[in-house]
Structure formats: C-alpha cells, structure tokens
C-alpha cells in the first residue's frame, strides 16, 4: 500500500483538537485550532504511524487515499 493523500473530513464530526494525531506522528500532523497535514509530510516513511493515528482518532475524521 502507498498512501497518496491524507485529509481532514469534517462532514460527520468536527476535529476538537485533542492533538492525538500530532502526538503520534508530529512529522505528518499539526494541530492548532484543528488538524492540518504538513505540506512536506512523507506518508511513505511514516505509513504505519499514519494509519495508526487515523484509526485512533476518537471521532474518525482523518481520511486517506492509497494505492496497492
Ligand atoms: S486525533 Fe482527530 S480529533 Fe484529535 S486532533 Fe487529530 S484529527 Fe482532531
């Protein structure tokens, strides 16, 4: 799998800035008033950590697109 894109999807809930994603993968996620994905984030290098953070966001608002 290769992660192509990661983004915040607030269609079902709003990011409440708990900072869990940033704590888990500060190289990829940044949280101020809400989560943003760093411009130069290396999804390949931190793939397992990114997936872990996505799966553990308490309200599941981080989405990703990947190729096999
Ligand atoms: S883990 Fe989810 S709710 Fe918490 S800051 Fe990250 S995106 Fe927002």
**Regions with pLDDT < 50 over 5+ consecutive residues?**
none
- List the total number of helices: 2
Ends apart, CA distance between termini: 4 Å
| Average of per-residue pLDDT values | 97
CATH class: Alpha Beta
The main β sheet shows up as: 2 strands, antiparallel
What's the gyration radius in Å? Answer: 11 Å
Instruction: Output the helix-strand order.
Output: EHEEHE
Strand order of the largest sheet: 1-4
The proportion of residues in beta strands is 25-35%
User: What is the CATH topology assignment?
Assistant: Alpha-Beta Plaits
Bound molecules: iron/sulfur cluster
Morphology call: globular
- Residues in helices, as a percent range: 10-25%
- Please identify, by name, the CATH architecture: 2-Layer Sandwich
Number of strands: 4
